Structures are given as C-alpha cells and as structure tokens.
Please model this.
Amino acid sequence: MHKRQTFLTILLIAFALSACSTATASLTPTNPIPAIPTASASMGVVAGRLISKDTHTAFANRYVFLAVVSYNETGQGAFFVDTGHSPTTQSDENGYFRFVNVPPDDYVLVVGEPAMGSVAITDPNTGNPKIWKVEAGKITQMNEIPFEFPK
Model:
C-alpha cells in the first residue's frame, strides 16, 4: 500500500509539473523581436516596429525610408525621400524593420510609397517630423512607432 501511495504521489507531481511547463510554453511571444545586427565602425544600424496608433496592431509589409535631413545656414531642416538613394527596407509580418549600413546623419522616418502616399513620422509632443540621429558604430533603436495613415 505504501509503495502504491508513493507511486501515486510521484505521478501527481509529474502531472503537475508537466501542466506548469505547458502553461509556461503558451506565454512565449507570438511575434518575437528579430535579431539586430551589430553596427560597423563607420556605419549605423536602425531598428524599430510600426504599429497602429488606434489598434496597436502591426503594420506588416510596409515600405520604410530614411529621409536625410539637410540644414540651411540658420539651422532649419528639410527632408525628402529619394527612392534611388534613400535607405529603404520593408517591415516584416510583425511590423519590425531594420536598416543596416546606414551612413551617419540625421534622418526622418517615412512609411509608405512616395508615389502612392506616405507618412513622415512626427514627434507626438510637437507635431513636427521626428528627427533621429544615426551614429557610426551604434544602433539607433526606434522601438514601437505608433501612427496612422491619413484616411
């Protein structure tokens, strides 16, 4: 009888542990963050994720551009997307994007297709285009970027 009670106790513990491991496995994120490559000594890396401001869902498979900012002698900046020269990538199915080998400079992030309609990401505090500084040898992590396309 004692052996049977010990066996049942071990079986019950094993069952409880397997239930815990199954519950833990379900907590694994469904949209893992892709690896971000190391920046070279002379270039930068940029990474982030595009999400809807309203629904917080990912903007998948969207064109993403880095528009270089040019400054005049008074410090006022302007940017433009040059589809032939601006760094370009596409967000993945979970909204993540990354640029590698980006020349150091100031950039504005632009999402969409310039000929079909695009959005410059703005600073939520000022409403002006947000400027990110890309530095050589560093990763510029933009994190989650909530925005909406104009309706």
